């Protein structure tokens, strides 16, 4: 089904509706995209259940893939971890990884054990979980991260504007929060990185920073 274009949308996927063609990775394949919920906490979990499960997953992911820090922002990515999200259709926690670097089945079994243990006296109430392949490889995402956060040379004004960056695990793409007046800068980056980047023009951009929420 063809997606309709709107004049103003929260997340703008440049090139999807007659915009510039991309020179790099194309739009994410549908089978690797997760239908994430609109809110921060999935509606099928209580706040307590969510935080307990999230803390357990965080701890295991951190011990396996390392923590993203200022000195080594690509550490988890370099080891195959892309991010954690939630599937609104299947009501599952979804851990997204590069299958070329991570054994999906082994990690899924281990994380399910972690979630059961986190429930304490109610192991049967552990949230559902799956591990799946991302839409892009770690190598492709690290390359995009370098262009966005270090090189900043894809446009004459790229190094002088404010924007923040988040890696969205639901489709393995970087979301740049930018000012609408910088649409030409966004356009140039979309042409360079293709489906690995999308844009949020909803509010005032913050200073450059990279977040990989989980």
Task: Give short descriptive properties of this protein.
single chain; alpha/beta; five-stranded mixed β-sheet; three-stranded mixed β-sheet; 5 helices; 8 strands; elongated; disordered N terminus
Describe the protein.
- The protein is of the alpha/beta class and 214 residues long.
- It is 29% helix and 17% strand.
- The protein has helices at 47-65, 75-78, 104-118, 138-151, 183-193; strands at 11-12, 81-87, 92-97, 128-133, 164-168, 173-177, 197-200, 210-211.
- The chain has a five-stranded mixed beta sheet, covered by helices on one side. Strands 2-3-4 form a three-stranded mixed beta sheet.
- The protein is elongated and about 60 Å long.
- The chain starts with 10 loop residues before the first strand and ends with a strand.
Which strand order do you get reading across the main beta sheet? 1-7-6-5-8
**Major β-sheet annotation:** 5 strands, mixed
Query: How do the helices and strands follow one another from N- to C-terminus?
Result: EHHEEHEHEEHEE
Uncertain parts: 1-11, 13-23
| Oligomeric state of this protein | single chain
Tally of contiguous helical segments: 5
Overall strand count: 8
- Overall geometric form: elongated
- How far apart are the first and last residues' alpha carbons, in Å? 31 Å
Radius of gyration, CA atoms, in whole angstroms: 18 Å
Helix content: 25-40%
The averaged pLDDT comes out at 82
- Structural class of the secondary structure composition? alpha/beta
Strand content: 15-25%
């Amino acid at each position: 089904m063809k997606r309709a274009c709107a004049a103003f949308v929260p997340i703008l996927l440049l090139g999807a509706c007659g915009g510039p063609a991309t020179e790099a990775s194309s739009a994410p394949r549908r089978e690797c995209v997760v239908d994430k919920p609109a809110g921060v906490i999935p509606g099928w979990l209580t706040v307590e259940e969510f935080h307990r499960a999230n803390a357990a997953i965080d701890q295991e992911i951190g011990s396996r893939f390392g923590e993203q820090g200022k000195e080594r922002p690509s550490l988890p990515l370099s080891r195959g971890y892309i991010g954690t999200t939630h599937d609104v259709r299947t009501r599952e926690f979804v851990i997204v990884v590069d299958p070329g670097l991570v054994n999906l089945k082994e990690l899924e079994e281990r994380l399910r054990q972690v979630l059961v243990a986190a429930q304490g006296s109610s192991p049967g109430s552990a949230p559902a979980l799956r591990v799946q392949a991302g839409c892009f490889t770690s190598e492709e995402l690290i390359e995009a991260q370098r262009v966005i956060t270090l090189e900043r040379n894809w446009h004459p004004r790229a190094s002088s504007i404010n924007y923040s960056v988040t890696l969205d695990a639901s489709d393995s793409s970087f979301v740049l929060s930018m000012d609408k007046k910088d649409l030409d800068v966004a356009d140039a980056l979309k042409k360079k990185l293709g489906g690995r980047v999308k844009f949020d023009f909803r509010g005032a951009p913050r200073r450059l920073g990279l977040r990989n929420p989980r």
